[in-house]
Structures are given as C-alpha cells and as structure tokens.
Design brief:
There is one protein chain. The chain contains 1 helix and 8 strands, in the order H-E-E-E-E-E-E-E-E. The longest helix has 10 residues.
C-alpha cells in the first residue's frame, strides 16, 4: 500500500513560514492547517473510501492562513482509507489518505 498522501515537499517550508509569527528564530504563535474534503460546505467530498483516483486528481484542499492548497493524488489507485475528517487540523507530513495502487 502507498503510505498515504503527504504534504508536498515544499509545503513544509511554507507552513513553517506562513503559520508562525517569528520572534527571532522561535515561533510565538502557530496555526495548524485544516483539511477540507469537499469544495464547499454541503457539497460531496472530492473522494471517499472505495473511489478510484488518477495520479494528479484533487483529493482534498488544505487551508492554511486563508490560502487554499489543492492536494493531488501522488499515485493512481483505490482510496482505502481517509485518514482525516473534514475540518480536522493536520500537521506537515501527516497522511491524508491511504491509496492502494
């Protein structure tokens, strides 16, 4: 099994910069990004367990500091598990979905 979809590599740096007000080199306030499994409230999720996805297909949105970041499938396959719920805070590197190629 693919070990899940992780934040894109560059996003780690962006989250560290965008989500903390820096005092010297120490963050004094951090805001965790939030997962959005649907494009808008009341709409169906981008993907659900059992769905087939294509590489590059949008599977969810991560909202960080009012910026919406579309997260795309890294592999084609079947969504085995959604590891986060809509509106749940997420951390860099946290698996979002498990996809069986």
């Amino acid at each position: 099994l693919q070990a899940g979809l992780l934040f894109p590599q560059g996003m780690h740096l962006n989250l560290a910069c965008c989500c903390a007000k820096l005092h010297g080199s120490k963050p004094v306030h951090a805001v965790l990004p939030v997962s959005c499994r649907a494009a808008a409230p009341g709409e169906p999720p981008f993907v659900k367990e059992g769905d087939r996805v294509k590489k590059g297909q949008t599977v969810c949105i991560i909202e960080a500091m009012k910026l919406m970041n579309e997260i795309e499938a890294e592999v084609a396959g079947t969504v085995v598990k959604a590891c986060v719920e809509n509106g749940q805070s997420v951390a860099p590197g946290q698996p979002l979905f498990i996809i069986k190629p």
